Fold this protein.
Amino acid sequence: MLNMVFLTNSWLTSFNQPGLCITMAMLLHYFLLAAFTWMCLESVHFYLALVKVFNVYVPKYILKCCIAGWGIPAIVITLVLIINKDFYGNGSLSESHPYINFCWIQDNTVFYISVVAYFFLIFLMNTAMFITVLLQIHSVKTRTQKTSRFWKW
């Protein structure tokens, strides 16, 4: 959906309908945040599968992942819309924005908080999960090598 909204964004902007532009910018923002959120959920799943291998049962795991994956971005979008729906719009209406005929976030502060900071937090989470998984794999490998040396004597 992110690709579809991105590809149709500039075409739909050409109709010069403010409501349509706000909707397209909101959808683009939502699906971008959803993609980031699902990436984070994949790293949590990776952690559960490779580090917490045994005794990991989360009731209604898929439902909880879906609520987080689709719900957290919806909360962010709702907050932005509640604060000011005019944060979304057409870049060509403002001289300070270099992109033309593209509906997106118009306020730099909102962009940095709701996209860049969001991505940065997910990037940190993914990095932490990746390092934890690597350390776990390394410790298993080290234990296996010590055990195999013990049995060779």
Q: What stands out?
A: The chain has a mean pLDDT of 88.
